[in-house]
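Structure, all two chains, one model.
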Amino acid sequence: MLNIAIMGFGTVGSGIAEVISGSYSLVKSRLGDDINIKRILDLRDFPDSPYANRVTHDFNDILGDDSVTVVAETMGGCGAAYKFTKALLEAGKSVVTSNKELVAAHGVELLRIAGEHGAHYLFEGSVGGGIPLIRPMNDSLAHDDITEITGILNGTTNFILSQMGSGMSFDEALAEAKRLGYAECDPTADIDGHDACRKICILAAVAFGVLIPSGSVHCRGIRGLMSENIAAAAEKNRAVKLIARAKRLPDGKIEAEVAPYEVVMSSPLYSVEGVFNGVLLHGTMTGDVMFYGRGAGSLPTASAVVADIIECGSKHSCNKPQRLWEEGAGLYAAPESGTVIGLGDRIEI
Amino acid sequence: MLNIAIMGFGTVGSGIAEVISGSYSLVKSRLGDDINIKRILDLRDFPDSPYANRVTHDFNDILGDDSVTVVAETMGGCGAAYKFTKALLEAGKSVVTSNKELVAAHGVELLRIAGEHGAHYLFEGSVGGGIPLIRPMNDSLAHDDITEITGILNGTTNFILSQMGSGMSFDEALAEAKRLGYAECDPTADIDGHDACRKICILAAVAFGVLIPSGSVHCRGIRGLMSENIAAAAEKNRAVKLIARAKRLPDGKIEAEVAPYEVVMSSPLYSVEGVFNGVLLHGTMTGDVMFYGRGAGSLPTASAVVADIIECGSKHSCNKPQRLWEEGAGLYAAPESGTVIGLGDRIEI
């Protein structure tokens, strides 16, 4: 029996419970074992939930429970989530997460601690929702030299840009995104590119083994984009997308940025519409490969977290050591100005 | 030291040697071990190759060599390849392959034999060239219920259709594909859809656990398509693609077909152009996910085979049992006529 705990019973956390109960027999067969959600940590109570009696407000109920070996952290942020994750890994428990803020800020340290204590720290759900991305990069493409990553990594801004392409103003499109639950009350992290920026730093670390500080990355969002920008691109058969990209330079530095681009029609990213995400990788041997799917949402993201739970909780788990990352402060290179080949022109606002 | 052998030193087989030597340090680090191509089986000699002294014409040099534990089969066909693969698996050696004919015809038996002898039979390179596809389906999406697969699985026909979209006739486009090395001298298997048909049967088996006989599948290729068909689709903002699709029906049967479709612009398959492949999966939890990349070519396909070599040769290999397939004769359902939702109209010629 694999006993797990969930920390943070919001959109993704409750989705994990839903995926496990909805796919129970598949999860069990892949695990080679039974699975039980033993504890749920949240500040709130959920009296109407079938999991009401598993809810605790005390982190020590999870940390001190030797039967719990895998913990899903879906609290978000770098406060309590950081403190709890560190304590769990130091206790030899594996942690799986969708918390991109934490991975982007403390991934180097948390991977190191996990390795030192025979635990795993997995984060497939932190980038691209349910799209299999980090595991294929680590497994299927591990022997290839990935030189470049170009992605649409934020569904909220991509939805807004798609709506603007149909004639809405930025404010109207943002209001529509809020109405449909695609944008949060405070959409700053999405609109200004910080969310995409954290995600490209995580993908660059997976590909290059070096985590560049997200605060150092040239990052511009879509605030200030006008319908005129979208229309001007459309006249050239181009679509405006918020692009997050990273590239390893010959000197070992990593060029990265988040910025709106006019994407040319021949790019596979051109037709990534609405809340979907797309990530294009260039491998020396494999050539261009793209992964596409729902970049957010309760069940897709929870699904990615459940895949990680299976990976570290499986009876057949191979305890393959995870690749460690190096700190990349000092390795960041600002992007060159001008057109990016195969993509199109950066939009300067 | 991992000693491997390669059977068939053609396009993909020689590509494997090129990937291993070109990515030597990455392969070694992912393997956790050194790697050595000990034997190469081919009817020909390669006096100018750096591997000339490893070439043998006698299969028993590989079968009888206890130090060789992983063998790449890139011979193609169901004759000697079948006989050799079976003997190797029965001897407990793992076999990795790009041979879609063999996997589609004998996958059920070969997976069973591998399981009985503690060996692996892996075939990432048999579908979609270098695109990570089968491993993500088996790992990242294993806990999800994949209900539908829709793909552009043959680069040759997709290239021809793209060229016809630019105004060429079928014959001109085929000649161009041959000139560029995208089509073989006898392009029947591509043009008439048999290649795509084998691949959709393999993907359906990975998703549903049941291998339907490829000979039973309704299969139409692109022979007879006229420029007028392409132009008529374009007027409706649609693109003609050779679609291979499979779907699990509520009664447990598997609907599958290969046929040219008018693909609507909102489908992510619409913009898969030229020799590229795209595979769209629908998972109950994950929603729509697409994988895109070069569907053929020496290095991309060889790259997928090398990823399989690493999986079964790694020191950290977990010996996770492979999922077995059931024989699907009798479980095939012919496709319904009419439009496929999210795709477009089938073209009747």
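The longest strand of chain B covers residues 238-248.
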